[in-house]
Structures are given as C-alpha cells and as structure tokens.
Design goal:
Shape: globular
Number of domains: 1
Oligomer: single chain
Largest sheet: none
Number of helices: 12
Distance between the termini: 24 Å
C-alpha cells in the first residue's frame, strides 16, 4: 500500500534488499564466529551435522505449521543443489578457521561474492556507477576488516585451499537459494529441503570419516554443554539463507550479494566483543570502508 508509484516502488525494493542483505551478513557473521569456536573443540563434520539436524527439525515444524508442502515443485532442485554445496563449504570454512590465521581466512572467504555477482551480470543486471563504486569500496573494506595478515603470519597452504573451496561453495549457495522459491511458505520448504540434504550429505561424510579412523567426538564425549551454541549456529545459518533469498528477490543480485558478504566484519567485531581481540588499524579502516560502500550501494 505504501510502495505505490514507480519511484516509491523502486525505493522500497532497494530498502528491502539492503535491510535483508545486511541482516544476512549479521546472521552469517555470528554463525561463522560460533562455528569457528566450536570447531576448535569438536570435529568440523560433527559441528555441521548436529547444527543442521537441529535446524532441520525446527524447519520441519515450521513447514507443517504453514502448509509449506503445497509449494513443492521443480524449484526445489535448486534447494537440493544448495544443500549439497553448503556442507562442503561449511566444513572447509570451519576447518580453515581452526587452522587460521583468521586474519587470512576471513578475507579470502569474501571471494564467494564473485559467484552470485557473476550470475547477476550474466542474467543482464547492470549496476549503476554509484553501485559499482559501492561494490568496489565495500569489498575492499571487507577484506581489510578481516585484518589481512600479510606479514609475520605463517599460513598453511591447506588453510588457503580450504578457504577457496569454502568461498566457491558459499557463492554457489548464494546463487542457488535465491532461485529455490518465490513465496514465503515456499522459502520455508526450500530451506527445509536444503537442511535435510545437508544432514544426509554431512552424515554420509561423517560416517566415511569415522570408518577411516577419524574421531567423530572430542575425547570428553558429546559436547552437551555446547548444544545451545550448536543450535544457534544451525538456526542462524538457516535464517541467513532465508533473508538472503528475500533480498535477492526484491533487488539486484549484485547488490544483495555484496551487502550480504559483509559478514567478516561481523565476525571480527564478535571476536573483539567476546574474545577481547583488539582491532588493528587496518581492520578499523576496513570496517569504515565497508560502511561507506554500504551507503553507496543503498544510495545507488
């Protein structure tokens, strides 16, 4: 009712896109922070499987309550594909975070934005000059906010490879989940299908890993004390996928993807707040650039 008239309609759509894309970055940033901490004590596969089981259970209840089953259709194959890519990306990213240093892992992961931006350009999206400037400034800010440790940090080649695999996987999820539904109830169903696929794929990988001699649990047994954090990681990841899908449906994918990729800023700030990690000058400058880029994207 409020969004009437061509100009007002465009403004409302841009506002909705910015709001939900920024909500995505907040949720993913906090989920990555929690997942990174959990993986230092519990195998990454176990963290992924348990957190996604909890998320799938909650989403199953939501789908039944909202009648989401009626939205079943061919688009759900996008959710299945996202469900196959997501656990690979999460496992690789959590392992990379555990190997560290986070100041290298976090900025590299922002390369995931290249996949949905490329899809948007392929589909004919052409951001304006202000938005192009905003994309450049925001991405630069995100990389700097991660605190790139270019000197004095020993980076394992395995950590870099895992981070690049994670970036490709997250980018694929970005692009796929945006195509998985067109309605809110359909989105609930798509996210449920994605989570069930996550659990099946992750469960198979965990079984194979254990058969090869890897440990599924820490020496102290199942981390019951970490169950609330595991639940938060799973549900925050689900919510982030949902808010991103809404953002991508109401505005250009190029803008939604860049704003959603600000999550490393959130992870850095969470580390500062909860772990008392000090932000370096380059990180503070990067956070400022990310905010400036966000404003440019919103204004464009």
């Amino acid at each position: 009712m409020w969004c009437t008239g061509s100009f007002t309609e465009l403004y409302c759509e841009a506002t909705v896109t910015a709001f939900f894309a920024l909500a995505t970055s907040l949720l993913w940033g906090l989920a990555d922070f929690g997942g990174g901490l959990l993986t230092r004590r519990t195998p990454a596969l176990t963290v992924v499987v348990v957190s996604q089981v909890i998320a799938a259970a909650v989403l199953g209840v939501v789908v039944v309550a909202t009648g989401g089953w009626s939205e079943a259709g061919p688009r759900l194959w996008f959710a299945v594909a996202a469900g196959l890519a997501s656990p690979v990306a999460m496992i690789a990213f959590y392992k990379a975070l555990a190997l560290g240093p986070m100041g290298v892992v976090s900025p590299l992961a922002t390369l995931s934005v290249a996949v949905p931006v490329g899809v948007g350009l392929f589909l004919g999206e052409r951001p304006g000059m202000v938005q192009v400037a905003g994309i450049a400034v925001a991405v630069t800010g995100v990389v700097l906010a991660g605190g790139p440790q270019l000197r004095g940090a020993s980076v394992q080649r395995r950590a870099i490879v895992l981070t690049l695999v994670a970036a490709l996987g997250f980018g694929a999820v970005f692009a796929l989940i945006a195509e998985a539904s067109t309605t809110v109830t359909g989105l609930f169903l798509a996210l449920f299908v994605q989570r069930v696929t996550n659990v099946v794929a992750g469960g198979i990988a965990l079984y194979v890993s254990v058969r090869r001699g890897a440990e599924a649990l820490p020496p102290t047994g199942f981390p019951w004390a970490s169950l609330p954090t595991l639940a938060f990681v799973g549900l925050a990841d689900v919510a982030a996928n949902g808010t991103y899908s809404i953002a991508a449906q109401h505005g250009p994918i190029t803008v939604a993807a860049v704003l959603a990729s600000l999550y490393p800023v959130v992870t850095s700030l969470a580390a500062r707040g909860f772990l008392d990690e000090r932000l370096r000058t380059v990180q503070a400058a990067g956070a400022g650039l990310a905010l400036l880029g966000t404003l440019l994207l919103a204004a464009g």
